[in-house]
């Protein structure tokens, strides 16, 4: 072994293709610093609309990241794409941006899909993403993961490709309309095509030796000849097509086919070369609103055609919308860390090249999983709801709705069996086991019943003895570690488990779901016979099916051997190593050797790794394969499915791990051998997965030797396997039609090209391999002691929450904890059941997304992901096995991880009916949480469903133990509610001129004059006719304006003297009609209608009172709730829009928008159409609550002498205009302005109509931050309510320390109820249904003057406090703060005391 200074390991990144750079001036910054933006981005950056995007994957999904020029390219997560039911260590994908500069088309899949040909060729999921809003539309199509799918052009079409592989007889191209998210009928192309791109005049693709134009029937016409198969096809804004082609062995060149030739569709000569460069140093990238960019080390031939430029950025860079920023793929050494769930933030480095200054900035961004997947299209299967889909396939067996361990399975070791859990090893444990195994000494003792798994005693390499290598030697540790990194990310258990935690073993496609046939109709059809059954860290498949259910030619291992493979990382490594050793012996015995054949050298394992992944075809079977034998074509580096200009995997950048589909399997494994993955050893502790292999050499030759681990592209393409470098042959044998054209010239007996260029000859690309080949680094010498297990997330062990509690755990009695030192010391007092709904195929897909974790109470809990509905769901039940008549306290066990939802709705079956408790599951560790006391008169039961109002398929919901504690006493339950209404008799005169409202809203008179003038003007306009074709109105506008005028004149200006239901406040949409007033002292049922109130807030307390009329400690609970009502759009305005459509044929504006927290504040995203509904939902802001506290008569907290339960709750929200104006960067509101401009351009429309609609825009619908130029409703103050209540044992509601029971904002009127009956402001019964507080619009409309806040001038802005009465607000929203925009959604505080802390789970 050479000295350390003479060898190169993972930390040196100065390999070929990475020219030395000076130290970057900006590294690890979240954005371009504001004081450097003029210099780096150019003046005017703050007005630029440029937007950059990229993707970054982890275990949570594929994150779509977005950055805008006007924010210094600060990166944010637009959305995260994933699919339920996958034990994915990381998600990968490709994407392209449509010509609208807004819609991204994405194909995405688990990283391990690249290990399977069928998954790689047609298994990726497809979606479109709106970069402005994050809205996702998931599409019913599967795609190839090849580098050229998807592709976009200058228009609104994207193309995805489905490769035929060896099962289908054609390549399929599918066009997606990115505006409607619709997928056109597939174009089936016989033979082979690559790099299909949409142009304005048709599809252009790379064929064998030519660019071709593809017709809808799949026929092709040659446009121009190419040298081999062109790649990197890029559509310019003018419809031209730039492309790359190889020039000799190591060079590449760029040509451009002009738009006219593309449109003509006729064969021409090859266009001239415009740029040249090295094969691995030249690339192309489009800018949808800018030029086509030639990337890398380009030498220009003559002058560049218009629409092209050279950018000195990495060849795989993407460019921003205008081309101002070139972005390299985000780089991270970690795989499998889901954002925000592993106890560690996982930043990625994004290198950007700023074209203006020709400088680089390395941004640091932390991809996040949004609270919700903004605007996922439910119709497309989003928003967490899996649509019911029909299928012609049937499951092998239907199963049971309550059986978790499916007897009908084919894989041997079941999922979701608490007696079969795998411990997640630390990465150093995996490396230790590999180091011992490759030397044949992995003989650590596993005693009988190791980890309470019930297995007999064994040692790993006694179960799976190693096989001696032909030619002698050992497997280099880093070769096998590279395989484990690629196969499983070094995981033995499911990705949800950190080291030391137990969970289901990681299993490849346990349910046999056919994700990869290109047909989404069967994506949730369980078909056990198709199960893969690859288990654990090395994904051992052979022998892992149940006896009697094996594949043809397979023999099942003994069951306890199967369990060892599935549950013990060391046994799995022993079994996997033996497979690799067999592949070496198989290939070596057939004469396939690499370089000098020394088994100690990393590169020399290329054939064995190749066979490990895709098999070996022996010479003995060559007769049935038309003479072909050896290793197959899929992993041949000459296969054109891999980019010709790829660099050695991971050698230039860890960003390669984000798109592993661009390399054959052996190249990936050898890349991992030299560049270890970084992964978690414990929460918040990232470590290198293992020690890297090393190469001899100095600072120049060392990196070069390491980079040469990748063989030349044509190393395995020669006459021995009928492969001819530089030639192109179309596969046309029936089983490979649709595969890419390439150099494989092998023919079957029928004379058809069949891609059986199977390699079977020795080969050398390192003649001095003894020195230049890679070497093993054995970290743990033979006999090194066993590495201790991790202790992440220790379980909560013990007897339960309190003495006397009746516990129902989530596993049956007698189930041992696999976590150490956590014995069971209780007996279940009832039954726990998980029940699954069936899908249309009568199986239970919710089981696919059910997972077990060795944590929480007793060392075990279940979890799944929340959704809004559908069959991928589960309902849990905890039911006592004895009848109980009387009150009981209910406590729920919550684990310290795997519990993320804030909307876990526990349903308690009580004597009074169902009672719901919404619980915020995540908190500071394992704990028991009381959810109050309840009255029972039967078998007490608690239920919890994975269906929640904010379910997106992303947030975990946990199911652990429940405890019931009997209480002696009398159960009581009381409720208080405040409901606010904007009465039609409200005086809407403002505090003008010191008001945030101006123009025609400044006073009743101004509004009346404006309405009368505009309605009269429109009504009196000339009628359109054959002779009157300008400045005229039709019958619809005549009627609409007349109706409006009659409303205005009837209402007049007096706020109280007017016909009922026709006030000035109602026709402008502020007020509710008199019919919404409560007619009696009983709370009206219509207060449940969001259109008939403005805000409402309630508190319902329950508790148990003992014989001394004292509150029983621990029995108290309060359930708070709040809701913000809808804002009514003026009827006259909607009528005018409809009438203009009828009279002028002008389509109504599309004002549909998507935003969060409409009506309720739980992070839920809503998509809303104001035009069709006539309303804008108000935004509910953050709510603040205190836990219920038993207090004595003096208000002092007491556990033994409490006579009341003290509560405090503050909530409210904003008028619906404000969230609408802030939604999606104001885009929906801008659509109304576009509509007004279209109206103005119509010669028929009279100016008075245009003026009226523009006035409405300026007043209500003009987004922006300028209070003078833009709509005042961008800054509209919120309305709020604060309840401060004592619920007392004698059944009364009392004040807390003399404070008002109800405080509220200046608007609107407040109605007050106790147990559904009207009360006074002091909480006493009343015979009047009238409000207890009247609105004051003048004070509410006041704008604070400088240094003149409350109490000098009551107004709704700024913070409320103990002494501000009805002024201010709990969220400190201010009209004077320019940083607050219409989309503001801030945290809040109590008006009682701004510094008073809020309590979970009673606060948002």
UniProtKB/TrEMBL annotation:
<feature type="compositionally biased region" description="Polar residues">
    <location>
        <begin position="1377"/>
        <end position="1386"/>
    </location>
</feature>
<dbReference type="InterPro" id="IPR023346">
    <property type="entry name" value="Lysozyme-like_dom_sf"/>
</dbReference>
<dbReference type="Pfam" id="PF25275">
    <property type="entry name" value="Golvesin_C"/>
</dbReference>
<feature type="region of interest" description="Disordered">
    <location>
        <begin position="384"/>
        <end position="407"/>
    </location>
</feature>
<dbReference type="InterPro" id="IPR033803">
    <property type="entry name" value="CBD-like_Golvesin-Xly"/>
</dbReference>
<feature type="region of interest" description="Disordered">
    <location>
        <begin position="1"/>
        <end position="51"/>
    </location>
</feature>
<feature type="region of interest" description="Disordered">
    <location>
        <begin position="1345"/>
        <end position="1404"/>
    </location>
</feature>
<feature type="compositionally biased region" description="Basic and acidic residues">
    <location>
        <begin position="34"/>
        <end position="50"/>
    </location>
</feature>
<feature type="domain" description="Golvesin/Xly CBD-like">
    <location>
        <begin position="866"/>
        <end position="963"/>
    </location>
</feature>
<protein>
    <recommendedName>
        <fullName>Golvesin/Xly CBD-like domain-containing protein</fullName>
    </recommendedName>
</protein>
């Amino acid at each position: 072994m050479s000295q350390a200074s003479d060898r190169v390991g993972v930390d040196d990144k100065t390999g070929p293709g990475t020219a030395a750079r000076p130290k970057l001036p900006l590294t690890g910054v979240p954005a371009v610093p504001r004081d450097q933006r003029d210099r780096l981005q150019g003046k005017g950056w703050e007005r630029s609309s440029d937007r950059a995007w990229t993707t970054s994957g982890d275990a949570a999904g594929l994150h779509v990241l977005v950055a805008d020029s006007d924010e210094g390219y600060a990166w944010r997560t637009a959305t995260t794409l994933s699919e339920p039911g996958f034990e994915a260590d990381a998600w990968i994908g490709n994407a392209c941006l449509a010509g609208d500069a807004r819609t991204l088309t994405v194909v995405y899949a688990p990283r391990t899909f690249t290990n399977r040909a069928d998954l790689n060729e047609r298994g990726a999921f497809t979606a479109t993403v709106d970069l402005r809003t994050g809205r996702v539309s998931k599409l019913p199509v599967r795609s190839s993961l090849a580098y050229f799918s998807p592709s976009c052009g200058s228009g609104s079409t994207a193309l995805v490709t489905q490769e035929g592989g060896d099962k289908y007889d054609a390549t399929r191209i599918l066009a997606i309309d990115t505006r409607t998210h619709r997928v056109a009928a597939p174009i089936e192309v016989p033979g082979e095509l690559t790099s299909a791109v949409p142009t304005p005049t048709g599809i252009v693709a790379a064929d064998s030796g030519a660019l071709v134009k593809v017709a809808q029937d799949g026929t092709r016409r040659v446009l121009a000849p190419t040298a081999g198969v062109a790649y990197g096809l890029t559509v310019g804004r003018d419809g031209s097509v730039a492309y790359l082609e190889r020039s000799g062995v190591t060079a590449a060149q760029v040509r451009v086919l002009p738009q006219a030739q593309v449109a003509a569709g006729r064969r021409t000569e090859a266009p001239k070369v415009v740029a040249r460069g090295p094969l691995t140093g030249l690339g192309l990238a489009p800018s949808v609103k800018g030029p086509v960019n030639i990337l890398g080390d380009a030498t220009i031939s003559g002058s560049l055609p218009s629409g092209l430029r050279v950018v000195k950025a990495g060849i795989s860079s993407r460019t921003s919308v205008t081309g101002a920023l070139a972005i390299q793929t985000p780089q991270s050494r970690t795989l499998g860390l889901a954002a925000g769930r592993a106890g560690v933030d996982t930043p990625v480095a994004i290198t950007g090249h700023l074209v203006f200054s020709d400088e680089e900035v390395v941004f640091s961004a932390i991809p996040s999983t949004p609270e919700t997947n903004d605007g996922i299209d439910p119709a497309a299967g989003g928003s967490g709801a899996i649509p019911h889909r029909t299928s012609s396939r049937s499951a092998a067996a239907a199963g049971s709705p309550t059986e978790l361990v499916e007897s009908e399975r084919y894989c041997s070791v079941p999922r979701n069996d608490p007696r079969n859990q795998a411990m997640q090893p630390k990465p150093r444990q995996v490396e230790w086991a590999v180091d011992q195994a490759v030397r044949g000494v992995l003989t650590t003792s596993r005693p009988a019943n190791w980890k309470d798994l019930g297995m007999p005693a064994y040692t790993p390499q006694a179960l799976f003895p190693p096989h001696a290598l032909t030619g002698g030697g050992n497997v280099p540790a880093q070769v096998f570690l590279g395989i484990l990194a690629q196969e499983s990310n070094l995981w033995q258990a499911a990705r949800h488990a950190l080291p030391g935690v137990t969970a289901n073993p990681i299993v490849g496609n346990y349910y046999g779901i056919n994700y990869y046939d290109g047909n989404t109709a069967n994506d949730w059809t369980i078909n056990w016979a198709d199960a893969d059954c690859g288990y654990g860290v090395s994904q051992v498949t052979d022998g892992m099916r149940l006896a009697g259910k094996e594949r043809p030619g397979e023999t099942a291992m003994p069951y306890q051997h199967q369990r060892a493979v599935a549950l013990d990382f060391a046994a799995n490594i022993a079994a996997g190593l033996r497979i690799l050793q067999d592949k070496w012996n198989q290939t070596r015995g057939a004469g396939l050797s690499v370089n000098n054949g020394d088994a100690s050298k990393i590169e020399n394992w290329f054939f064995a790794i190749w066979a490990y992944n895709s098999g070996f075809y022996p010479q003995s079977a060559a007769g049935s394969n038309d003479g072909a034998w050896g290793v197959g074509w899929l992993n041949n580096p000459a296969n054109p499915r891999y980019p010709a200009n790829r660099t050695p995997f991971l050698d230039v950048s860890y960003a390669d791990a984000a798109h592993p589909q661009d390399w054959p399997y052996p190249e990936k494994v050898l890349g991992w051998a030299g560049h270890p993955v970084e992964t978690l050893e414990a929460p918040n502790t990232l470590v290198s997965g293992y020690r890297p292999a090393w190469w001899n050499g100095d600072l120049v030759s060392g990196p070069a030797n390491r980079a040469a681990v990748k063989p030349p592209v044509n190393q395995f393409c020669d006459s021995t396997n009928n492969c001819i470098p530089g030639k192109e042959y179309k596969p046309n044998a029936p089983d490979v039609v649709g595969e890419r054209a390439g150099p494989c010239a092998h023919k079957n007996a029928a004379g058809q090209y069949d891609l059986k260029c199977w390699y079977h000859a020795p080969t050398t690309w390192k003649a001095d391999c003894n020195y230049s080949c890679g070497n093993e680094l054995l970290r743990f010498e033979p006999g090194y002691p066993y590495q201790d297990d991790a202790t992440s997330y220790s379980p909560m062990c013990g007897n339960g929450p309190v003495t006397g509690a009746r516990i129902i755990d989530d596993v049956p009695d007698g189930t041992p904890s696999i976590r150490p030192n956590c014995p069971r010391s209780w007996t279940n007092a009832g039954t726990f059941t998980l029940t699954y709904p069936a899908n249309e195929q009568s199986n239970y897909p919710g089981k696919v997304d059910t997972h077990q974790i060795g944590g929480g109470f007793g060392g075990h809990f279940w979890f799944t992901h929340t959704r809004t509905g559908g069959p991928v769901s589960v309902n849990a039940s905890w039911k006592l096995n004895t009848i109980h008549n009387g009150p009981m306290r209910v406590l729920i066990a919550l684990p310290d991880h795997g519990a993320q939802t804030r909307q876990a709705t526990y349903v308690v079956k009580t004597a009074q009916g169902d009672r719901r408790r919404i619980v915020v599951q995540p908190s500071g560790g394992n704990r028991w949480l009381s959810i109050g006391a309840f009255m029972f008169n039967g078998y007490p039961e608690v239920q919890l469903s994975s269906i929640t109002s904010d379910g997106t398929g992303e947030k975990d919901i946990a199911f652990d133990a429940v405890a019931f504690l009997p209480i002696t006493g009398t159960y009581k339950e009381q409720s208080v509610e405040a409901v606010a209404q904007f009465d039609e008799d409200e005086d809407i005169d403002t505090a003008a001129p010191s008001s945030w409202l101006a123009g025609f809203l400044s006073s009743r008179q101004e509004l009346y004059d404006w309405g009368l003038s505009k309605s009269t003007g429109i009504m009196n306009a000339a009628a359109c006719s054959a002779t009157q074709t300008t400045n005229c109105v039709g019958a619809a506008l005549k009627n609409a304006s007349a109706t409006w005028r009659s409303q205005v004149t009837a209402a007049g200006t007096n706020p109280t003297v007017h016909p009922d239901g026709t006030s000035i406040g109602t026709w402008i949409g502020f007020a509710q009609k008199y019919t919404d007033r409560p007619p009696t002292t009983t709370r009206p049922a219509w207060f449940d209608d969001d259109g008939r109130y403005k805000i409402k807030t309630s508190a319902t307390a329950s508790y148990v009172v003992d014989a001394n009329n004292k509150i029983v400690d621990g029995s108290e609970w309060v359930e708070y709730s709040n809701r913000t009502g809808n804002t009514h759009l003026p009827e006259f305005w909607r009528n005018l829009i409809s009438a203009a459509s009828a009279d002028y044929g002008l389509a109504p504006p599309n004002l549909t928008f998507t935003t969060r927290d409409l009506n309720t504040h739980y992070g839920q995203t809503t998509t809303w159409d104001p035009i069709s509904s006539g309303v804008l939902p108000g935004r509910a802001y953050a709510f603040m609550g205190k836990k219920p506290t038993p207090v004595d008569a003096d208000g002092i907290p007491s556990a033994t002498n409490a006579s009341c339960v003290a509560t405090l709750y503050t909530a409210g929200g904003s008028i619906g205009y404000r969230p609408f104006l802030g939604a999606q960067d104001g885009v929906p509101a801008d659509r109304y302005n576009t509509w007004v401009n279209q109206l103005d351009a119509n010669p028929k429309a009279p100016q008075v109509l245009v003026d009226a609609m523009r006035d409405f825009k300026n007043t209500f619908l003009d987004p922006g931050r300028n209070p003078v130029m833009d709509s005042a409703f961008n800054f509209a103050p919120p309305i709020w309510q604060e309840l401060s209540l004592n619920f007392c044992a004698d059944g009364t509601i009392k004040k807390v320390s003399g404070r008002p029971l109800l405080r509220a904002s200046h608007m609107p009127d407040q109605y007050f109820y106790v147990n559904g009956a009207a009360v006074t402001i002091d909480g006493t019964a009343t015979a009047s249904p009238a409000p207890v507080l009247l609105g004051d619009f003048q004070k509410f409309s006041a704008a604070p003057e400088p240094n003149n806040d409350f109490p000098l001038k009551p107004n709704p802005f700024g913070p409320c406090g103990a002494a501000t009465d009805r002024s201010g607000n709990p969220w400190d929203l201010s009209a004077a703060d320019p940083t607050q925009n219409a989309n503001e959604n801030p945290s809040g505080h109590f008006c009682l005391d701004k510094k008073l802390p809020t309590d979970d789970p009673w606060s948002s």
